[in-house]
Amino acid sequence: MSNQFKILLFAKVKEVIGKDSIFIDLPLDESTSFNLIRKLKHIYPQISSTLEVSLLAVNQEYISRDQDIKINSNDEIAIIPPVSGG
């Protein structure tokens, strides 16, 4: 069995992948934030370095990069890359 996660994409990640959102499957026993990022890096190596400096938001709350949390298929998950401007 697995969970399917909808991941909302923003800024550079959205530009590189070319979509507003993607779907990722993870086994039930591996449905954590660390495993999600690991799988994203594997599927989309072109955003790997951006993911290293991006924030992960689960249900509109930022998750610390060193915090591995359990995620559920009904959670709202977003990848928030750093934004630069001038």
Can you offer a commentary on this structure?
The protein has a five-stranded mixed β-sheet. It has 86 residues and is an alpha+beta fold. The chain has a single domain, classed as Ubiquitin-like (UB roll). Helix content is 28%, strand content 30%. The protein contains three helices and five strands.
Kindly report the average pLDDT value. Answer: 94
The biggest beta sheet reads: 5 strands, mixed
Task: Determine the strand fraction and express it as a percent band.
Answer: 25-35%
Rg over CA atoms, rounded to whole Å, is 12 Å
Could you list some keywords that capture this structure?
single chain; 86 residues; alpha+beta; Ubiquitin-like (UB roll); five-stranded mixed β-sheet; 5 strands
Short description:
The protein has 86 residues and is α+β, with helices and mostly antiparallel strands. It contains three helices and five strands; from the N terminus they run βαβααβββ.
Topology overview:
Elements: E1 2-9, H1 11-17, E2 21-27, H2 33-43, H3 48-53, E3 55-58, E4 61-63, E5 77-80
Parallel strand pairs: 1-5
Antiparallel strand pairs: 1-2, 3-4, 3-5
